[in-house]
Amino acid sequence: MTPFFLLQLLISVSLTLASSHDYHEALSKSILFFEGQRSGKLPPDQRAGWRGDSALSDGSEAGVDLTGGYYDAGDNVKFGFPMAFTTTMLSWSVIEFGELMPTDELRNAAVAIRWATDYLLKTISHPGLVFVQVGNPISDHNCWERPEDMDTARTVYNVSADRPGSEVAGETAAALAAASMVFRDIDPGYSQTLLENAMRAFEFADTYKGAYSDDPQLKAGVCPFYCDFDGYQDELLWGAAWLRRASQNDSFLDYIQNNGKTLGADDNINEFGWDNKHAGLNVLVSKEFMEGQALSLESYKEFADSFMCTLIPESSSSHIQFTPGGLIYRPGGSNMQHVTSISFLLLTYAKYLSKSSQTANCGSIQVDPSSLQLQAKKQVDYLLGDNPMNMSYMVGYGDRYPQRIHHRGSSLPSVSSHPQFIACKDGSDYYKSANPNPNPLVGAVVGGPGEDDVYEDDRADFRKSEPTTYINAPLVGVLAYFVANPNAGLVLT
């Protein structure tokens, strides 16, 4: 083959691999999604116009104001544990990739974060208490009704010195600390408030150690939905790591160094999500080691390398399951949460490696940043439509996307089109209907296809068809990266 034809072949391969996706559009919609999840009094500039005010008396049962925040998924409950994680990941998305976002989307992302942090500040505003949930999930899940019509019990759940919840308090500390970095230049006063309250939340989490779902009363409310399955220890390290990053206070570095082993830092668990922070913790903490500022943190880089190696097919330690079409897959439902969070870690770690001119050590091979970027690109492109179903799994993006998502507000007629009250069981006909949802929840990413790449678009199959805030939160950072680097990882050698 002549050099000319070889060059033409390489160009052809490059163009084939090059992105055909509008990452800017996807980013915009992934942030807009959060407006459809808002609880409380909606602002005048609310863009998801089919939503209305809801849950305006939240907290009154306990004599406190707990209005605001986000519904976690397709129901009408405010679960504090995943909401705090969502906030942390939205903030981390802006911290790492905000400078790559178009100005208007950076502003929208900050608004989405503040909607959450304003609520989280309320949850820790009463000394000795952290409010962790509003809404009885059993009664809520027995109804199919709009949040605007909600008449189920708005039970208030809290943790205290006698009934600890280190995972929720620790994640709340992480969320407020990370968000304080987002607002440092935008609103310095608010940033300082967030940081001070993050320290208070962390002190509570560390002083009164325990898992919130170990308490019988709390367990009845949070399980099986957001039980603490993996212990609270990782959230203590995660909270300390974010406070270290946000404050540069050496006391938090000392905490990580002194408590790492006892809190399971050496467990090297290759998971990351609302309940398990290990892989994210290793990536986050490794940054300081790679910058040469804390050599004692070398093990975090080693564990972060180990996690990355499980994702690289060429590595001898690769063991992450993929669908035949190439999607990261973990059994248990809501699979896209793994896809988006792992993709975020791939890009963030690639950034840290690149800035420090390092690679990931995978035994017999060294993995460079572009390999991690390419793996993330494959995942996000699958999500946006490059898959066996030729389907985007983001509502409103592309020509073909889920029409019947498992989401009450989206599947029921809006208050503006149907002002009459729709009672608890009266929504069942809409739930069972084969018709598309009348209110597209633009930007929502559903749980996604099964291990065979098949998606049935069935509202009743919540494991596949329900969106969640913690699917979208890390995706915001991923999409921001690809807006600026649409062909990252596609390096021809």
TrEMBL record:
- Molecular function GO terms recorded: cellulase activity
Q: Which reaction does it catalyse?
A: Endohydrolysis of (1->4)-beta-D-glucosidic linkages in cellulose, lichenin and cereal beta-D-glucans
Q: Where is the active site?
A: H406, D457, E466
Which of UniProt's keywords are assigned here?
Carbohydrate metabolism, Cellulose degradation, Glycosidase, Hydrolase, Polysaccharide degradation, Signal
* GO BP terms in the entry: cellulose catabolic process
EC number(s) stated in the UniProt entry for this protein: 3.2.1.4
* Similarity section: Belongs to the glycosyl hydrolase 9 (cellulase E) family.
Q: What name does this protein carry?
A: Endoglucanase
Per the UniProt record, the lineage of the source organism begins with:
Eukaryota, Viridiplantae, Streptophyta, Embryophyta, Tracheophyta
